[in-house]
Amino acid sequence: MANNRREEWVRQLRRMADPVLEALRQRVLKQAMPVESAAPRSDCTHMEAFGRLLCGIAPWLELGPDGSDEGALRRRYAELTLEAVAAAVDPASPDYLWAPPDEPKPNLQLLVDTAFFAHALVRAPRRLIGGMTPELRKLTADLLIRSRVITPGPNNWLLFSAMVEAALRKMGFPADSTRMAYALRQHDQWFKGDGVYGDGRNFAFDYYNSFVIQPMMLDVVETIAGDAEEWELLRSRVLRRMRRYAAIQERLIAPDGSFPAVGRSIAYRCGAFQALAAIALRRELPEELHPSAVREALSAVIARTLDAPGTRDENGWLRIGLCGHQPGLGEVYISTGSLYLASTAFLPLGLPESDEFWSAPAEPWSSVKIWSGCDLPADHAVQDL
Question: What is the DSSP secondary-structure string of 276-322?
Answer without folding.
Answer: HHHHHHTT---TTS-HHHHHHHHHHHHHHHHSSTTSB-TTS-B-S-S
